[in-house]
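Title: Prediction job returns without error message
Component: structure pipeline
Severity: low
Priority: P3
Assignee: unassigned

Description:
Job completed but the reporter wants confirmation the result is attached to the right record. Sequence as submitted:
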Amino acid sequence: MKILLVIVMNSDQTIKIGGMNWKDEVLKAELPVVVEFFSPTCPYCQQLTPIFQKLSGEYIQKMKFGMVDTSKNSEIASGYGVMGVPTLKFFCAGRPIYEIVGLRSEKELREELEKALGIHTNCVSQSSPLYA
C-alpha cells in the first residue's frame, strides 16, 4: 500500500501595510521590500494582486511583499507620489529605488523583481540605514 502525502503551502506571503506598521515593515526592513499600492475597486489591481501574492511565496527569502490599500492609506500613497493604481514601489534600506505602474503579466513581474533585486545589491552597499 502506497501513501501519498501532499503538503499544501499558502503562497500568499504578503503583509497588509498601513500607517501603524509602515515604518517597521518597509523603512526598517532588512530585506528589499516591494509594495503594491492598490484599490479594491480597481480592475487592474484585481488582476495583478493574485500574481503579486503568488510571487510573494516564491521570493520569501529574497524580498518582502507588502500591500497598501490606497482608499484607506491615502497619506502614504500621496507621500510617495503614487498617482494611480496599481503601482509597485521597491524599497532598499527604507528608500524607494524603483517603481512600475500598471498591470504586468506574471513573466513581466518576475523580470521586474529580478531587476529590483539587482538594484538592491548596489543600494545596500552604498546606503546607511534610515533608522538605527
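Comment from assignee: result matches the submitted record. The longest helix spans residues 106-126.
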